[in-house]
Amino acid sequence: EDKVVQSPLSLVVHEGDTVTLNCSYEVTNFRSLLWYKQEKKAPTFLFMLTSSGIEKKSGRLSSILDKKELFSILNITATQTGDSAIYLCAVGRGWGAQKLVFGQGTRLTINP
Amino acid sequence: SQTIHQWPATLVQPVGSPLSLECTVEGTSNPNLYWYRQAAGRGLQLLFYSVGIGQISSEVPQNLSASRPQDRQFILSSKKLLLSDSGFYLCAWSVLGTEVNEQYFGPGTRLTVT
Fold it and tell me: Is B58 within 8 Å of chain A by CB?
């Protein structure tokens, strides 16, 4: 059975801290790994990773994939209160219409 | 730019009543379309996906069905709702093709079955 596991499930830090969120997976026909940020409603797209060892970066957020060890990390540096959200990891499998398998999410709370 | 709409935003329905949720996409043609459900305290689960008009694939057996009557319209339905159908329903789209493409989500519909 396809499985995506995120850790920790919940994390509370102070503004300015750096956080690392983890995502491990066991999925057949792996195609991609995606990170999303979910605040009140719809998840918003952050990164898509398909190759091992190549870091993707956007401002204070960065992510990297290890296809040998089957995991990915999402780093957020100099956290701000606006980073408080649920961070979702999803793995895309199959060709064409990708069927995403989601982890349960990490709830990140940034305290001022 | 592309926009995805869902309605209604919230819905409270009694057990046994029918359901129709609608999703439309603007600014793109021939998208792949998806329906997900997010139950309380759980991750998103893929329910249906579609690669074209009238082409629906179901991921999990359930009380729901989907239809795609037009290229950019995706409908989620039920003839008789169950309590377990409560949740947050999200529609998503991606570019059609065999390339790896990210999915973009609509604002969602929060369904409460009473």
Answer: no
